[in-house]
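Example 9 (inverse folding). The structure is encoded as follows.
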């Protein structure tokens, strides 16, 4: 399930529980019972509602923990990837600098390489974002 569907599901569950509680209270108030029985029934309904609310809260906490762990994992992977790319670019820049006979030429070559790498990254991220946007829009059209 996607995050949006989980939020939608939890919202629907919350509304269902609230509606059920209101319905139970109204039914109890309109039922022909003595005050003692009515208070007892209201207390029972309240307890049941609290229990269901606690269950829903536990479920939401579970989902939040899952999302936190997944996000933490992805962030770690992205950090490692960024470090590797930075080291790779540093090595390429060093190679270009050592190959060049003139320091000015080496600086120009390193700048060109950095520019080309950034351009490729930007183009890749634009293509990836466009792909993700089209997937999201097609999913929302299907829903």
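The amino acid assigned to each position is listed next.
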């Amino acid at each position: 399930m996607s995050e949006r569907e989980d939020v939608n599901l939890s919202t629907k569950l919350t509304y269902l529980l609230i509606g059920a509680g209101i319905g139970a209270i109204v039914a109890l108030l309109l039922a022909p019972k003595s005050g003692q029985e009515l208070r007892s029934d209201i207390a029972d309904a309240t307890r049941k509602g609290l229990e269901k609310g606690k269950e829903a809260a536990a479920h939401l906490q579970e989902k939040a923990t899952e999302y936190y762990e997944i996000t933490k994992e992805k962030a770690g992977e992205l950090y490692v990837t960024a470090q590797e790319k930075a080291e790779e670019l540093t090595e390429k820049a060093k190679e270009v600098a050592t190959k060049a006979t003139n320091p000015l030429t080496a600086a120009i070559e390193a700048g060109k390489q950095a520019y080309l790498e950034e351009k490729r990254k930007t183009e890749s991220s634009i293509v990836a974002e466009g792909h993700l946007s089209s997937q999201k829009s097609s999913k929302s059209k299907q829903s």
